[in-house]
Amino acid sequence: MANDLLVSFCIIAYNEQKNIVKVFEDVCKQDYPHDKIEIILVNSHSTDRTLEVMKNFAAKNKNDFYNIRVVTNQGHNQASGWNTAIKNAVGDIIIRVDAHASVPENFVSKNVETIKSGEYICGGARPNIIIDSTQWKETLLLAETSMFGSNIASYRRTTNEKKYVNSLFHGAYRREVFEKCGGFNENLGRTEDNELHYRIRKNGYRLCFSPEIISYQNIRSDIWSMIKQKFSNGKWIGLTIAEEPRCLSLFHFIPFVFVLAIIASIALTIFFGISIPLIILLCLYFIADIGMSILAVKNKKFNPTYLALPFIFLVLHLSYGFGTLIGILISPFWHLKLSDEAYKEIQRVKDQVTFNRMR
Questions:
Q1: What does pTM read for this prediction?
Q2: Which of 132, 208, 294, 339 is most buried, most CB within 10 Å of its CB?
């Protein structure tokens, strides 16, 4: 195994005092030489004990790793947090992992092997998991992992095929990628990955999906958190249309089109007494809804809460679709163009990463 490259393992967290402990345990179990792993921990204005947990981990394990740094996200969103991590990293490879994630023992080594094979950006499957399983959480997990309830992104499910994709989760990047392309667009929330990866592809790089790399993401544990997440995701899709629409795919707009079709059909019924389009739309949707729900529970042990799947799918689709609609409607009042300061921040990431290489 090639183990001569220094890896910066970056984690940002906001109020993750419980979840982040599991990630720390995973990092300590990595089979890649610990003296070749730098850990960058970014606290994003947490109001719980996240910062204290980070400092305790750093103090306890500082002699086991190349370096452990605890830094503060001076911005106010995830994009600024990742930029903070990138600017503080000195590794040849920069890996970003969410605080509520879990990674196997070979996560770092598999990423390094893929990078050493000639790739510049890589990642793998990122299936969803749950903590403290209950019947209801199992149902929410089915909704989140289904293509009907989530999306078709490759990283959401396992595959045996190595391929090049448009986006990755928990990605590993050669340092030079950020030197050339800059950091994350801090004007964006939720879609900052899409925009960065679009910019990376535009600069001639390819994003390699490797079947040998896997990590896991903990899902929201209640329906209201999922609804809030889907609405926010949809809203940022709407706002991103004005910022950089080319970083989005048509699949991002399917719930929005569904919501528009419902609104148009209801309007036809109310104002013109034409109800057939609404009836056809609802019939087609519920046929698909019931069919996908049956496929989701196929070959699984009966769980009475599975009966709620059709309703969960509907609520998630409406949340995402209405979120996109709201995002589009408010976009004229939103700062559509990157401010000069945000442009400078992307450039500062380039300059800082280059400087760290020279140190």
A1: 0.89
A2: 208
User: Measured between alpha carbons, how far is 285 from 277 in angstroms, rounded to an integer?
Assistant: 12
Residue holding tokens 């949707």? Answer: 285
pLDDT digits (tens, 9 = 90+) for 24-47: 999 999 999 999 999 999 999 999
Instruction: Yes or no: say if 238 and 331 are a contact pair by the CB < 8 Å rule.
Output: yes
Question: Which of 294, 191, 209 lies closest to 248 in space, CA to CA?
Answer: 191
Residue-wise pLDDT tens digits, 128-170:
888 788 999 999 999 988 888 876 555 555 567 899 999 999 9
Q: Which residues are within 8 A (CB) of 289 and not within 5 positions of it... i.e. 6 or more apart?
A: 148, 310, 313, 314
User: Are the CB atoms for 42 and 85 separated by under 8 Å?
Assistant: yes
Per-residue model confidence (pLDDT) at position 1:
42
Contacts by 304-313, CB closer than 8 A, 24 or more apart:
304/135, 305/135, 305/136, 305/138, 305/139, 306/139, 306/142, 308/139, 309/139, 309/142, 309/143, 310/286, 312/139, 312/140, 312/143, 312/149, 312/223, 313/143, 313/146, 313/148, 313/149, 313/289
Helix/strand/coil for 192: helix
Give the whole-angstrom CA distance, residue 253 versus residue 242: 14
